[in-house]
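Chapter review: from sequence to fold.
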Amino acid sequence: GLYGAGALIAPPERPAPPDFPDPSAQLDELRGDFERLRGYLTDVELSVTAATRLRELTELLTGLLDKGWAAELLAHDPEGVHVLSRIVRRDLPEAVDSFVRTRWWTRMSPGSDSPELHLERQLGLLKKDAEKLAAGLREVEARRQESHTRYLEDRGGTGGGSIA
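The token string follows.
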């Protein structure tokens, strides 16, 4: 009887959760995808304005994806990795591909909205997403710095006094 009562009270065995790659491994994969995307983007003919916006966006993405302190911060920010992944793997390729397809149709039947203007707007919006991510990472570092300042002030700010 006690065994049956114990079996009812004890928590059931649970299966182990799936082992997904950590954000730093996801960043490595994303870097490879970004390099393939950059190769694709070099083959697309763009207006001067769209090319400038694309260059600004890719420079920002390159900075965020470069190995170093930004990548270290992103490795602890799964949402940030998701934002970059969405831009690199879905939004930017779709924007450019839809521009290329629409531009062809516009040449066949002119008179509709300019595909270049839509692409320029899309690139601007994607850049804002990347800038928002970069600003969030900057805030994390600023809070870290402020926290360290408070720690030093709370410690007494003696900067090398006697050892207690």
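Two observations follow directly from the output. The CA atoms of residues 102 and 108 lie 10 Å apart. The chain is about 75% helix and 0% strand.
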